[in-house]
Amino acid sequence: MSPPGETSDAILTRLMSLHPKVIDLSLDRMWRILDALGNPQDSLPPVVHIAGTNGKGSTLAMIRAGLEAGGERVHAYTSPHLARFHERIRLAGELIAEHELAALLDACREANHGEPITFFEITTAAAFLAFSRCPADRVLLEVGLGGRLDATNVIAAPELCIITPVSADHQQFLGNTLTQIAGEKAGILKRGVPCVVGPQEDEALEVIESRAASLGAPLIVSGQHWHAASEAGRLVYQDENGLLDLPLPNLPGPHQIQNAGAALAALRHLGGGWAGCEAAVTRAEWPARMQRLRHGPLARMAAGIELWLDGGHNPAAGQALGASLDAMPRRETHLICGMLNTKDVAGFLRPLAGRAESLTAVSIPGETNTLPAAATASAAQGVGLPARVAEDVEDALRHIAARAPESRVLICGSLYLAGRLLRENG
């Protein structure tokens, strides 16, 4: 047992030492600890399981907004967190309380008996335990990495699966080809369970369709069974049940149209009405995804600068950010970027090269795997983006404000950098 009154942060720190690797994809350790806990994953409300490379969190946020508008109590599990670990676990709509989180983590630590287990695995077990103890109508469950061997993939019969767009990311764990990566994502499919599929490259869709056919899993595919588009400043969604004419998503960026489409397809399958669908696109909240920073010390330092924050970090996210910038009113734009050394830096920055005047590179404070600022700057220059190095985000912002006081600044490249800034800026 942990010492009386030990905080969740202290317990989480100790849980990080239970396995020598941060990521070690396998389900064996999950089955072991879940069995020791009484298999809470078998006592959950109906589960919606969401995999994909980009758009998982936004899609989940929209579905949650839609279900809650219909009066449902919804559990949600997402990762990573930005400011506090508590963000990962929502119980019936509310972030988990500190005393409850500490007790759950301690119960999982005790059930594990010091055996090797990754941080994500044991904290996912804690989430399942929490969900099994609190009444709700549904669980929205976001995959951490991949799908087939992800710690969340222990739900025998979810109500619905969703696969958002698949693209290159985490190749060291999921494979070097889109076919391999799509195979890992399609690993969440279960026999006879329907799956909403977001827009996909042909080779990814072929893998998903093949896996679904072998399991008898009905697919609800973008471009085949549902369509979403922006028309005359509205979101137009259509499927076999008819047409929805809705406001544009409140989450900014053209890519949110297709995320909204997947969320609406899911809500329609789950029986959601028009009011829930409207709430999905107007009430969703998902920080650090093209988030405008208007408050806090950083925003005050920016003064006349239009300040934005985004945690995207792979080539598909770079393309989405580029499209988001194109959709905004024209304004001189500068980037502040910090990334991890496991990412395709040039691939992320290439779509942004023609949309920004400069990039200021920073290292991510406190992150062992941060890419040195000089390496990020070098990658930016390699794709044709003028770049310099700064000590930190504040230093970078001061330099930009001095020479372009009315410009737009986008801080980007990592959810870890985004989380740190949100913590520091309240």
Average pLDDT across residues? 95
Helix content: 25-40%
- The name CATH uses for the topology of the largest domain is UDP-N-acetylmuramoyl-L-alanine:D-glutamate ligase
Please name the CATH architecture of the largest domain. 3-Layer(aba) Sandwich
Characterize the structure shown.
The chain is α/β, with parallel strands linked by helices. The chain contains 16 helices and 17 strands. The protein has helices at residues 8-15, 28-36, 56-69, 98-112, 119-133, 171-174, 178-185, 202-215, 256-269, 274-282, 297-302, 315-327, 345-349, 373-382, 393-403, 415-424; strands at residues 47-51, 74-77, 89-91, 94-95, 138-142, 160-163, 195-197, 219-221, 226-231, 234-239, 242-247, 291-292, 306-309, 333-337, 358-361, 387-389, 408-412. The chain has an eight-stranded mixed β-sheet, sandwiched between helices. Helix 3 (56-69) crosses helix 10 (274-282) and helix 7 (178-185) runs parallel beside helix 8.
Features:
six-stranded mixed β-sheet, Mur_ligase_cen, UDP-N-acetylmuramoyl-L-alanine:D-glutamate ligase, ATP binding, eight-stranded mixed β-sheet, single chain, ligase, Protein-Tyrosine Phosphatase, Chain A, 39% helix, magnesium, dihydrofolate synthase activity, alpha/beta, 426 residues
Provide a short characterization of the protein structure:
The chain has 426 residues and is of the alpha/beta class.
Topology summary:
Elements: H1 8-15, H2 28-36, E1 47-51, H3 56-69, E2 74-77, E3 89-91, E4 94-95, H4 98-112, H5 119-133, E5 138-142, E6 160-163, H6 171-174, H7 178-185, E7 195-197, H8 202-215, E8 219-221, E9 226-231, E10 234-239, E11 242-247, H9 256-269, H10 274-282, E12 291-292, H11 297-302, E13 306-309, H12 315-327, E14 333-337, H13 345-349, E15 358-361, H14 373-382, E16 387-389, H15 393-403, E17 408-412, H16 415-424
Parallel strand pairs: 1-5, 1-6, 2-5, 6-7, 7-8, 13-17, 14-15, 14-17, 15-16
Antiparallel strand pairs: 2-3, 3-4, 9-10, 10-11, 12-13
Helix pairs in contact: 1-4, 3-9, 3-10, 4-5, 7-8, 9-10
